[in-house]
Amino acid sequence: MTDRDKANQNKWWKTAVIYQIYPRSFADSNGDGIGDLQGIISRLDYLENLGIDAIWLSPVCRSPQDDNGYDISDYQDIDPMFGTLQDMEELIAEAGKRHIRIIMDLVLNHSSDEHFWFREAKKSRKNPYHDYYVWRDGVEGEFPNDMRAAFGGPAWEWVPEVGQYYFHQFSVKQPDLNWENPKLRREIYDMINWWIDRGVGGFRLDVIDQIAKEPDRGITNNGPRLHEYLRELSRETFRKADLVTVGEAWGATTELAKLYSNPDNSELSMVFQFEHICLDQIPGKEKWDLAPLPFLKLKEVFGRWQTKLHGKGWNSLFWNNHDLPRIVSRWGNDGKYRVESAKMLAILLHGMQGTPYIYQGEELGMTNVRYEMEEYRDIETLNLYQERLEKGYSKEEIMDSIYAKSRDNARTPMQWSSGKNAGFTEGEPWIRVNPNYREINAAAQTGEEDSVFRCYQTLIRLRKEYSIFADGEFGMLLEEDEDIFAYTRTDADSRLLVVCNFHDREVNVSLEELADPGELLIANYRDACQRTVLRPYEARMYWKERQ
Ligand code: NOJ
Q: Of the given ranges (113-122, 135-144, 226-235, 382-391), which has the lowest mean pLDDT?
């Protein structure tokens, strides 16, 4: 057995496809307008039909919902809005019957300010829980430093009872946990092991690269003790079971990703890195400061990650999640070529090395929304609007940013059918349904041969049939071409060729690989045309045995 074979052994997640559910927007079983665990259970057959191996569930633990569950007040209970612990156990069991594992979202950088630990911590400096959080002395009105929170405003909040500021990288209701405290770390490990005992299949770790912050030095991501903490965390919890772990790491580089996803299992299975995601913003500014996508750079970024991690780490592959706009609206075309471009983006991504993540509704080609300001719900969007108005931006400018990047684009209810509220709820949905649900919905697509759903279903099946998807070496083609994204994957026996037109105009492609490309595995146009012409957003994937 070669070293690579050894590293791949038992790593079920290398051939898996993971589906992300944002529970409040997926399926509502009790008519309160908010999705819940029973709603998810009722849709497991749909997911089994799609063919996925695991569900990453955004947080369902008890939470005041200041940041839709990313502010947890009890890590070992389910929020009543979503159901009960019993429902969670039922979900794990029912999913298991369909060979689907449940991946929990662990929010370990911060808790809710309503968590018992924080309620104690703010009572006095002598309280045993005080040091579970990050406090700095100060004088009221004078912040310890000028660090800002990700959702706007200062990163410090004054607590008169203790005469100190606490640090929060996100909202004031999300105080940062102090990982320097070994007692806190022990409590976290015990909590994780408790979930492992309940049969979960893995964990997604929220902003994990921010846990080792050092605010006195202005450090948020990649603090000096980060990998020490991760190794301890893994040793005390994940490594005892056959789990998948994925860390959200906005600050990851390929070098750091090799540490995080070292095949020796010392840290995590993989990370979410966001280098490609940050390309369409003005460099050095915020995501709201829009810039056109630099296509050649996109290819360079993907190519680099594919190459650098090959055999040395593991990639995650994603376009979407609950924080990002819908990819078909972002880099595809949500008008005339919605179906073609949604499929092209799927084929392009799923041919690469790594574990693909599909965000709910992506498999239907769901799109962004353009709502009135009163219809947005996301704390980040609401804060941004106020902040930019105060800074003197025009309403039109702000709305353009929101239409393009608001997290609510991804959070509108799942479009199940053309019925009332897209089949999401019998009640009043917590956020408005995208009005295009009559045209774009699951019921219209699952039985339809040319649907976006079928394209995803086929890609998932192909990834299981051909080992080259997991192992093949990546080679970028036509690096300087302004329209075409093409690459090969090769292993000892075969070659995969993926050729995509990223734009809405027909282009000619001259590639020697196309002279004898092999068997066409999947494409997004039904009828064949000249092999060397790609129609708008055309994508093809070929497989060939090597002589
Ligand atoms: C990243 C999560 O994906 C996002 O939704 C959340 O607001 C922040 N972390 C804070 O937990």
A: 135-144
The answer to whether the CB of 67 is under 6 A from ligand 1 is yes
- Report the sign of the C-alpha dihedral through residues 93, 95, 99, 104, in that order: negative
Q: What is the pLDDT of residues 294-325, one digit of tens each?
A: 999 999 999 999 999 999 999 999 999 999 99
Give the count of beta carbons closer than 10 Å to the beta carbon of residue 289: 13
What is the token pair recorded at 12?
């079920």
Alpha-carbon torsion (27, 384, 133, 220), positive or negative:
positive
Beta carbon of 107 within 6 Å of any ligand 1 atom: yes
The pLDDT assigned to 1 comes to: 46
Taking the CB of residue 504, how many other CB atoms lie within 10 A of it?
16
Contact partners, residue 345, CB within 8 Å, separation at least 6: 319, 327, 328, 331, 332
Q: In which band, very low, low, confident or very high, does the pLDDT at 9 lie, cut at 50, 70 and 90?
A: low
pLDDT for 3 beyond 50: no
Q: Is 207 in the pocket of ligand 1 (CB under 6 A)?
A: yes
Q: Is the pLDDT of residue 122 over 90?
A: yes
Site to substitute for ligand 1 among 66, 71, 107, most atoms within 8 A of C-beta = 107
User: What are residue 474's DSSP bridge partners?
Assistant: 489
Cα of 88 vs centre of ligand 1, distance in Å, is 22
Task: Label residue 194 by pLDDT band (50, 70, 90).
Answer: very high
- How many CB atoms lie under 10 A from the CB of residue 168? 25
Q: Which atom of ligand 1 is nearest to the CA of 67?
A: 7
Alpha-carbon torsion 500, 503, 506, 509, what sign? negative
Please give the backbone phi and psi of residue 390, each rounded to the nearest 5 degrees, phi first. Answer: -65, -30
The single-letter DSSP state of residue 188 is H
Residue nearest to atom 5 of ligand 1 (CA): 323
**How far apart are alpha carbons 138 and 142 in whole angstroms?**
7
Look at residues 547, 545, 537, 455 and name the one whose alpha carbon lies nearest to residue 496.
545
Residue numbers annotated as active site? 206, 248
Helices (H) and strands (E) in the chain, counts: 17, 20
538 lines ligand 1 (CB under 6 A): no
In the predicted model, what is the mean pLDDT of the chain? 96
Q: What distance in angstroms lies between residue 324's CA and the mean position of ligand 1's atoms?
A: 11
Mean pLDDT of 123-131: 98
462 φ/ψ angles, rounded to the nearest 5 degrees: -60, -40
pTM above threshold 0.85:
yes
Which pLDDT score is estimated for 141?
A: 85
Q: How many CB atoms are located within 10 Å of the residue 89 CB?
A: 14
Per-residue pLDDT reduced to its tens digit, 26-38? 999 999 999 999 9
Closest C-alpha to ligand 1, atom 10: 70
Between CA 243 and CA 197 the distance in angstroms is 12
